[in-house]
């Protein structure tokens, strides 16, 4: 295939990935709606993340919980297909440009979607977190639509400053951390929803009925952030400065993106430190985690669009 054909294939793969993710999102919406119609009160969750009928509940026999579980499995299967298409689009983009596909915001976005979905699916293999399926697929659909409609640019060679093997190391680590922080942010938002419902005594109704207990979500969010933080530390404070030394002759120059990468690190460090030493749990910790994610988003979007500096090429 020629580079033009590879570029066209990449665009088509990303488009179909967005469609399949949207179908996965719809499957999870049906799953959530079916769950809400099963029975009021507490929802029991099995080891695979599927809801189980509580004693004395009117579920219309075994058919209704079976359908709930089936729609959830449809959502997961479609998410996997979407991930394969998403990854194929990223790979084809790299082949079309004859480089790694991490040279601009469009490529960062489509690759970040792969990292986020992959993080979710890997964690789903070990923990019953199918309740995250709807927010994950919804977020990825929005990101891919924004990438295609607003950020897409023709594949082009890298600027000279990016010609280094540290590009592979630095950006790969940053993407892995970003995927973890994104999943953690979604979990923190759902924690706030569930925690509020528990305090108001409405945990068995509405959206919160589909979620596990607030303490379970809080613990999961902490573990995800605890995984992503050392990866971000390596990407932003070790690999990044080393690459800067080769590219610009200094390890650290307080460039806007460097500053906000450090701000992001401080926010997540404060969150993890508070959780580990002071036992700071609950609403305050979740809000602090979301502050860190907001700093991460500004580092990715705001600096690229408005911040300028030596990293301004990343917004092109």
From the structure above, extract its key features.
316 residues, mainly alpha, 2 domains, two-stranded antiparallel sheet, 2 strands, flat
Structure characterization notes:
- Keywords: Cytochrome c-type biogenesis, Membrane, Transmembrane, Transmembrane helix.
- It is found in: Membrane.
- It is a multi-pass membrane protein.
- The chain folds into two domains: 1-157, no CATH class; 158-316, no CATH class.
- It contains eight helices and two strands.
- It has helices at 3-36, 63-97, 105-126, 133-151, 166-200, 214-248, 256-278, 283-307; strands spanning 44-45, 51-52.
- The protein has a two-stranded antiparallel sheet with strand order 1-2.
Q: Give average pLDDT, whole number.
A: 83
- In the predicted model, the low-confidence regions spanning at least 5 consecutive residues are 38-62
Q: What structural class do you assign from the helix and strand content?
A: mainly alpha
Q: How large, in whole angstroms, is the Cα Rg?
A: 21 Å
What is the terminal-to-terminal distance? 26 Å
Output the strand order for the largest sheet.
1-2
Topology of this protein?
Blueprint: H1 3-36, E1 44-45, E2 51-52, H2 63-97, H3 105-126, H4 133-151, H5 166-200, H6 214-248, H7 256-278, H8 283-307
Helix pairs in contact: 1-2, 1-4, 2-3, 3-4, 3-5, 5-6, 5-8, 6-7, 7-8
Brief digest:
The chain is an all-alpha fold and 316 residues long.
């Amino acid at each position: 295939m020629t580079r033009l054909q590879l570029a066209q294939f990449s665009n088509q793969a990303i488009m179909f990935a967005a469609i399949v993710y949207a179908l996965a999102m719809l499957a999870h919406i049906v799953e959530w709606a079916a769950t809400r119609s099963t029975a009021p009160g507490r929802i029991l969750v099995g080891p695979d993340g599927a809801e189980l009928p509580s004693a004395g509940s009117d579920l219309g026999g075994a058919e209704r919980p079976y359908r709930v579980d089936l729609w959830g499995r449809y959502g997961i299967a479609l998410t996997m297909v979407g991930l394969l298409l998403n990854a194929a689009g990223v790979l084809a983009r790299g082949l079309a440009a004859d480089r790694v596909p991490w040279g601009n915001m469009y490529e960062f976005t489509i690759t970040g979607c792969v990292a986020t979905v992959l993080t979710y699916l890997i964690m789903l293999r070990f923990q019953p977190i199918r309740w995250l399926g709807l927010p994950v697929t919804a977020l990825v659909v929005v990101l891919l639509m924004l990438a295609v409609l607003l950020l897409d640019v023709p594949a082009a060679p890298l600027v000279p400053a990016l010609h280094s093997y540290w590009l592979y190391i630095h950006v790969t680590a940053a993407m892995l951390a970003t995927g973890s922080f994104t999943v953690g942010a979604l979990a923190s938002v759902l924690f706030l929803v569930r925690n509020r419902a528990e305090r108001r005594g409405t945990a068995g109704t509405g959206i919160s009925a589909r979620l596990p207990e607030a303490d379970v979500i809080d613990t999961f969010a902490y573990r995800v952030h605890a995984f992503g933080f050392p990866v971000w530390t390596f990407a932003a404070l070790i690999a990044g400065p080393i690459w800067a030394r080769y590219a610009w002759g200094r390890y650290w120059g307080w460039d806007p993106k460097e500053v906000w990468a450090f701000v992001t690190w401080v926010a997540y460090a404060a969150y993890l430190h508070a959780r580990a030493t002071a036992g700071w749990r609950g609403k305050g910790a979740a809000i602090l985690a979301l502050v860190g994610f907001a700093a991460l988003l500004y580092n990715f979007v705001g600096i690229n669009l408005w911040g300028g500096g030596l990293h301004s090429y990343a917004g092109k």
